[in-house]
Amino acid sequence: MDTKKEFIKEMEKVSKDLQYIEKSLNKQEALLIKQLKPTPSFFQQVLQWILNVFGTIYVLIEQFVDYPDDNVILGMEIDKDLQNMSRKQLCRYMDAVLPERGFFDIQSTSKIRLGCQLLREYKQLKKLNK
Questions:
Q1: How far apart are CA 25 and CA 113, in angstroms?
Q2: Which of 6, 8, 78, 128 minimizes the number of CB atoms within 10 Å of its CB?
Q3: Which residues does residue 73 pair with via DSSP β-bridges, in sequence order?
Q4: Least confident span in 44-48, 65-69, 79-83, 117-121
Q5: What are phi and psi of 71, to 5 degrees?
Q6: What is the number of helices (H) and of strands (E) in the chain?
Q7: pTM above 0.85, yes or no
Q8: Alpha carbon distances (Å) from 105 to 2, 20, 56, 94, 109
Q9: In the chain, what are the domain boundaries?
């Protein structure tokens, strides 16, 4: 009986050690990915800074704008709950359903690109279900 308990205890220790190793590897992988990204040129950094400043100003002003006819956008009906959400709430919703968080922080072109990818995948799913 003791050997069985000892074995289980040893396996629990091994499991914890493996979890620790997995976490370490994930951190190292994330760091490596970050290091392998090319550093943008000074000009690109200035452009990003300008976009961030204007983006912040846009977000501050945009929160006071009413969108009364947002029930249909480009021919697509928008659900009532989405119509009533603020920009920040919509971004939080996207964070909740996408594989990674950070939707609010990405540039608008990246958001459009993501939207195109999601629509492409949706369209492919529709074809498969026919």
A1: 30
A2: 128
A3: 76
A4: 65-69
A5: -75, -20
A6: 5, 2
A7: no
A8: 55, 31, 10, 12, 12
A9: 68-130
